[in-house]
Amino acid sequence: MFRDHIKSLQKKASPLEPSETERRELTEKVVRHGEDFLEELPELPAYNVEGDGHPLSEDDLTQPEESIDRVLNTYREHVNGPGLNPASGGHLGYIPGGGIFHSALGDFLAAVTNRYAGVYFASPGAVRMENKLLQWMADIVGYPSTSLGNITSGGSIANLIAVVTARQAHGLKGKDLERTVIYSTTHVHHCMDKAFRIAGVGECIRRHIPMDERFRMDPEALEGTIRDDRANGLYPWFLVGSAGTTDTGAIDPLRELAGVAEKEGLWYHVDGAYGAFFQLTESIGDRLKGMEASDSLVMDPHKGLFLPYGSGVVLIREGEKLRKAHHFQADYMQDAAEMNDVASPAELSPELTRHFRGLRLWLPLKLLGVEPFRAGLEEKLALAQYLAKELRNKEHFQLFDDPQLSVVTFRYLPESGDPDLANKDLNDAIRKDGRVFLSSTRIHGHYALRAAILAFRTHLHTIDTLLTVLDEKVAEIAPKESGVKE
Length: 486
Ligand SMILES: *Cc1c(COP(=O)(O)O)cnc(C)c1O
Fold this sequence. Notes:
The chain is α/β, with parallel strands linked by helices. It is 45% helix and 14% strand. β5, α8 and β6 (205-208) form a beta-alpha-beta unit.
């Protein structure tokens, strides 16, 4: 009787395990959908102002759709349509991500096999794979083999882990906070402020150190500020240098900052979420030199290695400090704890159970090697130089700075009227056009357009399209701007 009941439940739950025929059909349709998208992609806008996905809010999630075709249609129309198209090479806003195909297959395998990548005991191979990837990235930035790290969901969590590790390593207590000082420029990524707050050190004193005219921290001003703080009985604790700021791609003088941090006993953190992987290129020269001397470092494979969203990395130079800040103990984990020679992600981050993130990086590396990544990054640096050169020669345009990495900041200089309004209008017109997508920032108090070149599908023809779009849209808005004056 009871056995029959159990069996009938099993039958009801059986759609959770589709048959081989069903699996084949589902896979074919999903893969076909992905292929159709990639075929269409060159013609799709980088930004789509049509639609807002609202049917998804009214969706009855408890009722299944009749067919996968309808489900995929919903996805195409309401999700993969409105807004920004990060798969497009025309995405030149913020810091573009990637989405290389090989990684999608890695995610597929990770999900189908569902290996438990949190602890060594559960999946020694998965953990060794992730550790090896971390070691490879440590080698790229010049960290020693004693460093440890974690593959996170992104740069924000990676930065948070670094802050927590530093807090623990310096033994900060609640009562210390009001005399503890954090140093950065105003161009540090906003996720650092979030991280300080979440890590419970939001009450620390923040010092924003002045920048030079190219938006790099002034190390002498930093030293002076630290000296004054010490003289006033404060506790200088944490220094953030940027290996490529989001605003302008500026690289702080990382070597000089390392010197100051070492002399003053500060925890030195480098945020290389955007820029650190450029270390793979030859043309970067020694411009990122000094990041190897940091205590902690963040880099984002979903930016600099063109991976789909969901991959950041934190590295801690003295690996044991990362473990001390995140280790755990629980009776129900006693079998796992016995095998502790190999570092496990769960003892090095806030997460226990997590996506097997290593596979989406390992698979492309094993299939392609590192050369295509290196070349792609070189191409992006060269494209930024090309765009800067073209803009410099363009009438009515002002380049704010030679690109230090792959971000180009510039503005349109109208013959009359308010340049800030004109550039905002220009940016709106570009977004409505959709062939390319730019974002904006403020430079020396002016509204500035920025082209951030990092999507792996951004090529020479994309930059030429941008230049064409700029000409077309300036011609469109120019009469309006001069009209403003009269
Ligand atoms: C993108 C970025 C971050 C945040 O990383 P997410 O992966 O978006 O969480 C932090 N710092 C810099 C410099 C960035 O460019």
